[in-house]
Amino acid sequence: MAGLCEDGNEPPGSLKAKHSKFCCRYCLPLPKLTDECHRVVLLGNIDPDATKFNLLDVFKLIFMVGDVRFSEDCCVADTYIVDMANFGLGHISKTTITAVKKLEVCAMKGYSARIRGIHYVNVPAYADVVINLTRSVMKPKIAARIHVHSRGLESLHEKVSKKVLPKEYGGDAGTITELWDAWKKKLISYRGWFVDQDKMKADESKRPGKKIESGDIFGFEGSFRQLSVD
């Protein structure tokens, strides 16, 4: 399964070893709902080493957590907090506009996500370009819900109650380490289901109608390296 830092020896090509890099990041749904019955989800890097960063692994983890939430969670919508404390230029160079767009399409169309807000915290100055480019590929309704908290957490507390947030953000919901350890155990308990899902594939030859190309779904192909920023 998506390897969640279990102890033990695993062959290099095993599923657990393949995804052991998930130990370097977290996708953490917080235990308490907001007053509006929204679930707050934290996203961030544990290890700042950009050589261990793979954007597709991040997306894999987000959707794995989403799969578990389908079975166990009940909320009206999601609010995301993206912590960029351990996010550097090396991570930016591995992030493509195409991948971000694909994440949005999969989340909105595949998982029917209802996003009420995306909040960036601990944002370095150079990350403004990344955030603005992310806004540019989002639907206007979602782009308008992106907030950058670059001058402390006071503005975040105006949007998200402290009772929901972990201690690292001045809240009362425990520490990120404690909460993420609990979520890793939950993901491990779904190991058998994830292994079965990895074996499933779509037979596109049986899809009725015109063949669907990736450009038809995602709209464009490209990357940060192919964009010029004034």
From TrEMBL:
<dbReference type="Pfam" id="PF00650">
    <property type="entry name" value="CRAL_TRIO"/>
</dbReference>
<dbReference type="InterPro" id="IPR036865">
    <property type="entry name" value="CRAL-TRIO_dom_sf"/>
</dbReference>
<dbReference type="InterPro" id="IPR001251">
    <property type="entry name" value="CRAL-TRIO_dom"/>
</dbReference>
<protein>
    <recommendedName>
        <fullName>CRAL-TRIO domain-containing protein</fullName>
    </recommendedName>
</protein>
<feature type="domain" description="CRAL-TRIO">
    <location>
        <begin position="79"/>
        <end position="177"/>
    </location>
</feature>
